[in-house]
Write a structure and sequence with these properties.
Layout (H helix, E strand, L loop, with lengths): L1 H21 L20 H9 L15 E5 L8 E5 L11 E7 L6 E3 L5 E4 L10 E10 L10 E8 L13 E6 L7 E4 L17 E6 L4 E3 L5 E4 L11 E9 L9 E11 L7 E2 L3 E7 L7 E8 L9 E8 L5 E6 L4 E6 L10 E10 L13 E11 L6 E2 L4 E6 L7 E4 L2 E2 L8 E5 L9 E3 L5 E4 L10 E10 L6 E11 L7 E2 L4 E5 L7 E8 L11 E4 L9 E5 L4 E6 L11 E9 L7 E13 L5 E3 L13 H26 L74 H13 L50 H15 L1
Parallel strand pairs: 1-7, 8-14, 16-22, 24-31, 33-39
Antiparallel strand pairs: 2-5, 3-6, 4-5, 6-7, 9-12, 10-13, 11-12, 13-14, 15-17, 17-20, 18-21, 19-20, 21-22, 23-26, 25-29, 27-30, 28-29, 30-31, 32-34, 34-37, 35-38, 36-37, 38-39, 39-40
């Protein structure tokens, strides 16, 4: 340590000594008319004085100085001398006292008030405080009066190399792509030194790598880390630890140093192709596997990671490209082979596929390394399975005439067992699709027969399901839909499309169309309906009406003459024969009712009955109906009014409403119950047999006729209401003819002459000990436990 301090002092003072020696002689002496000048020894101050020597001739102060210097971290047995203050007013008589004030005066710096020597009494650290500003003044020793104005000066703490470099942001982490070229920049680091960067080389740093070579290098001054080897492979080594050193004093010996670590991770690039783990894969699959089922997985390994390892799989060749497909699983990075179409063991028993795996993301920088893909062969063996029967057609369409005979064959379905064993097939009808059981099927040959008659007009289509079941394995079944269309035959005669009623005006003209009718036929001929109309043979020469066939397959009825009179004949019936064009043709007779009516001059029907002649002139049927409705409504209102009047409640006692003494006020208060013995006479509930042996019923009107009482005069308002109520209560109690009649129901005693005997145990003369409960065991298992409890009780009593 002493050698190091001596070296630092030598580095500090050597420039000052050389400069001091080379200065002109005029700098060392002052003119005769000026005070001695005290300089602190700063090389900068000396340079300033050498460049401006004229300052000595213009000085107006008693002393001249600018700044002093003191070394940091200096520690010795005695305070270190910083400098000395002196004035030309001091003749050496010791009548002048020097005073020091400012930063650290008295605590860090101490002045000899007689000689003006300034000492540092504490160890200084430039990194804590680099300079101190103080004020010096010369005063009279006795009076303390200032002899000169105060002067300010600065004491600078000179730096020494006492702080090692530090990496404040370490340790560091950085990444660089693998396979990078030589000199690729990785990152840069920065160290700081608390020493003075201006003075000396204490803060001049030089960087170097202590550990991490030969993979990485560092710029000594900029601290930029670069790759020192080309084509570093992540798959060989992914992470590197680099130890970096920063040394001050320009890297020379004696300088302080600090270290940090840098972790360099090589990031992945797509520099490796996928590679199948094996060149041949074997899979087996049953022939009845469901479409879309995964048959197997193949995987091509890739040393890269992330998206650089993603591969897509394809089937590029083979005899099963139409039956199989392969998809890529992004999570597992493998290929899944699935079934696209059904397999048939009897047709082909094995397939060979050529599968390729190729990288999805290819880096063109490494395309020269070869194709980033690989291929493998996949052999798939189809296993035989017990398959259900196969129908010759996926659906069947059968046709049958609606007049087909029962048990006639409608059609046939066929099915076979595709397995090599070829089990016999049994056919049946799913009765859920043929609830009416209209069809049957031969279980052996699949012929469908008619079981019940058909009617096309009720149902044209019948959809049933045929089931084919293997006899050797009943679990192997197949279903096929069969649609049966019922063909039409001419089995329905035509008839009027609706119930027609024609109206003929009395003032009609000959040849006037009375009614146009149309016919309908439930059958559905291929060429459509065509109807023929005619009158009955005996009515061909009908004197009143004739018919005319229209082009739209309808019929018009015309009047032959005029002058129809409804008083002579009100209604005419005209039978019409309607025939269809079927083979054989069918016909029916429909009767048209023609009613003679009275019409207006423009042909509007007004009345069609004879009674209309007695109606008042100008009063139509609608007006009569309205009048009748009004009369009925009035009668209903009158009846309702009378009914409400009869059901209106009247008071029982007809008195003046203002006489409150006769008003009845009802209180819905409950009684006191059985414990309230003062509310009524308890003797009425006792058995009357103990009194006279018979209790007459009082719920009928007695035969005794009570003389009517004389009417009482109205009571003045001053009479006591309580007295009035008591009087009326006494009269009511003594009048048996006054309603309501008393009806006493006795529940406190039992009836006489009961065949069943007493059901109460209150007056029972027997005790539990006299009872025998053995009969409970004969009542069945439900009373067994109860009988055991009672039998145990009796045995305990005997014990």
């Amino acid at each position: 340590m002493p050698e190091r301090l001596a070296e630092m002092l030598l580095d500090l003072w050597t420039p000052l000594i050389i400069l001091w020696i080379t200065l002109p002689p005029c700098i060392y002496s002052a003119p005769m008319n000026q005070s001695p000048v005290l300089m602190s020894g700063s090389p900068l101050e000396l340079n300033r004085l050498s460049e401006e020597p004229r300052i000595l001739n213009r000085s107006k102060r008693g002393w001249v100085w600018n700044q002093m210097f003191v070394l940091e971290e200096f520690s010795g047995p005695e305070p270190i001398l910083v400098g000395r203050l002196h004035t030309d007013l001091d003749p050496g008589s010791k009548k002048i006292k020097y005073i020091l004030s400012g930063d650290g005066a008295g605590t860090i710096f101490q002045i000899n008030d007689v000689t003006g020597d300034i000492h540092a009494i504490k160890r200084l650290d430039r990194e804590e405080k680099a300079e101190y500003t103080l004020t010096a003044q010369a005063v009279d020793w006795e009076t303390n009066k200032p002899l000169e104005p105060p002067s300010e000066f600065i004491i600078k703490v000179q730096d020494i190399n006492d702080n090692a470099p530090e990496f404040l942001n370490g340790p560091y982490h950085a990444t660089v792509p693998e396979m990078s070229i030589l000199g690729t920049s990785v990152t840069n680091v920065t160290a700081t030194d608390a020493d003075d960067p201006v003075y000396g080389n204490s803060a001049k740093l030089v960087y170097s790598i202590l550990e991490g070579q030969p993979y990485f290098s560092i710029e000594p001054e900029t601290a930029i880390i670069k790759t020192a080897l080309p084509n570093m492979d992540r798959e060989a080594k992914e992470e590197y630890l680099v130890v970096i050193q920063a040394k001050d004093m320009g890297g020379h010996s004696g300088g302080l140093s600090g270290t940090t670590t840098l972790t360099v991770t090589l990031t992945d690039v797509n520099d490796n192709p996928p590679k199948f783990a094996q060149s041949l894969y074997h899979f087996s699959v049953p022939e009845d596997v469901v479409l879309g089922t995964a048959i197997g997985r193949v995987k091509a390994n890739d040393q890269d990671i992330g998206e650089n390892a993603q591969s897509s799989y394809d089937i590029i060749d083979g005899d099963g490209t139409a039956l199989f497909e392969i998809t890529s699983d992004a999570q597992a990075q493998d290929g899944i082979i699935r079934l696209r179409k059904p397999l048939d063991f009897e047709t082909k028993k094995s397939y060979t596929l050529k599968v390729e795996a190729a990288n999805v993301h290819i880096d063109p920088r490494f395309s020269g390394r070869g194709p980033f893909k690989d291929t493998a062969t996949v052999k798939i063996v189809v296993e035989d399975a017990d398959e259900p029967p196969v129908f010759s057609s996926p659906t069947y369409l059968l046709e049958v005439h609606e007049n087909a005979a029962l048990n006639s064959v409608i059609g046939q379905v066929t099915a076979r067992d595709p397995d090599i064993t070829s089990s016999p097939i049994r056919f049946s009808i799913d009765r859920h699709t043929d609830l009416e059981r209209q069809f049957n099927i031969n279980a052996d040959d699949g012929k469908i027969t008619l079981a019940t008659p058909l009617d096309r007009e009720l149902s044209v289509w019948h959809n049933i399901t045929i089931i084919a079941t293997e006899i050797r394995n009943h679990s192997q079944i197949s279903r096929v839909p069969v649609a049966i269309k019922v063909l039409d035959v001419n089995d329905n005669a035509p008839e009027f499309a609706s119930e027609y009623e024609a109206f003929l005006c009395e003032n009609g003209k000959p040849g006037q169309v009375i009614q146009t009718v149309s016919a309908m036929d439930k059958d559905d001929p291929k060429n459509g309906h065509y109807f023929l109309y005619s009158l009955l043979p005996e009515m061909v020469n009908n004197p009143n009406f004739t018919i005319k066939k229209n082009e739209d397959n309808s019929l018009s009825i015309l009047a032959k003459h005029n002058g129809f009179n409804r008083q002579k004949q009100e209604v005419y019936l005209l039978p019409i024969i309607i025939s269809d064009s079927g083979n054989p043709p069918l016909s029916s007779t429909s009767t048209l009712t023609i009613r003679v009516c009275g019409c207006s001059s423009d042909g509007v029907v007004q009345s069609c009955n004879v009674e209309a002649y007695v109606l008042p002139i100008g009063l139509s049927m609608g007006a009569l109906i309205a009048i009748l409705a009004c009369i009925i409504l009035l009668l209903v209102i009158v009846v309702l009014f009378v009914t409400l009047r009869r059901h209106k409640n009247e008071p029982l006692i007809i008195k003046d409403d203002e006489d409150v003494r006769e008003n009845i006020i009802r209180y819905d208060d409950e009684g006191g119950g059985e414990e309230d013995t003062e509310a009524f006479d308890i003797a009425t509930l006792q058995n009357p047999d103990g009194i006279n042996g018979f209790l007459p019923r009082k719920d009928i009107k007695p035969d005794l006729q009570f003389m009517p009482r004389q009417g009482l005069a109205p009571v003045p308002n001053g009479v006591d209401v309580d007295e009035f109520i008591n009087v009326r209560l006494h009269e009511a109690d003594n009048d048996p003819t006054a309603p309501p009649y008393d009806s006493i129901q006795i529940y406190g005693y039992e009836g006489r002459g009961s065949v069943a005997g007493s059901l109460s145990s209150l007056e029972s003369t027997t005790s539990d000990s006299d009872q025998n409960f053995d009969y409970l065991s004969d009542w069945g298992p439900r009373f067994k436990r109860l009988g055991e409890l009672y039998s145990v009780g009796e045995s305990d009593k005997e014990t």
